[in-house]
């Protein structure tokens, strides 16, 4: 048995991880620490076996108390500001949460685990492939040895947090691992991100705004595959090491958007009652969802291509993604159609 503290566990990836861990490790204790900002929602943890503590990861005293009081031996750190557009408008929140917050957690872990209980432990830090910067069309995929070259305030703040985690291992001996993941998608994703945003816009007949020429390339990772990768890091990862977790689906944004449009059209053809529920959708009128596509000015500093080389994770962790993109996207879109009560209050905030 293990006792886990999951930071940001009421958010998208963290919430999926809690549900995944409950299913795979039902006897483990799970405590969630989440500030419940706009992207954290109690409803994401509906049905989960977890204690939710509302609080800030920058509150070092609070974190120390949770580690001691619950005999935590595993800390899985998801909590982060993560939306690039928001980081361009307001970088300060990203510095506060992603850098200062991560340092606060590391200080608490050092105090309790190294200077205190001496318990065998693991601090696992969730990072992103965006810390590596942008690839050219023929460049090799990001590996764990790719130099850091962050291009947005978001990715810069994550890069700094990665370095702090590494430093606490090499300087103080904290048992840490880090995983750098590619673009996640799946249930419970806040509807400001591409896939849920475009799905909900399509359902309501709103424009599908495409940055630049739509040919920016990302590697798409289903969130359950990501959770499997984190589980593998916790079980098999070597202390102090980093592992790239990818989805094996390197696609231009335009192809992703066209797939979303096709799957929405398919759903309206196959699911009874959708036209009545969403009468403003082009598909409700027999028209193609793709008619909603429009091009907008590109995002400032928009990285052109990300790609993940997961050779190390395959070799050391026996990790490989299990869900193909088309299957995973279809399941994701159907989940949103079946869980309108979860996303509708959130979507109202970003109209």
UniProtKB/TrEMBL annotation:
Residues 5-332 form the NAD(P)-binding domain. It catalyses: dTDP-alpha-D-glucose = dTDP-4-dehydro-6-deoxy-alpha-D-glucose + H2O. Keywords: Lyase, NAD. Its cofactor is NAD(+). Its EC number is 4.2.1.46. One of its GO terms (molecular function) is dTDP-glucose 4,6-dehydratase activity. One of its GO terms (biological process) is nucleotide-sugar metabolic process. This is dTDP-glucose 4,6-dehydratase. Belongs to the NAD(P)-dependent epimerase/dehydratase family. dTDP-glucose dehydratase subfamily. InterPro entries: dTDP_Gluc_deHydtase, NAD(P)-bd_dom, NAD(P)-bd_dom_sf, Sc_DH/Rdtase_CS. The keyword NAD applies. Pfam families: GDP_Man_Dehyd (PF16363). The keyword Lyase applies.
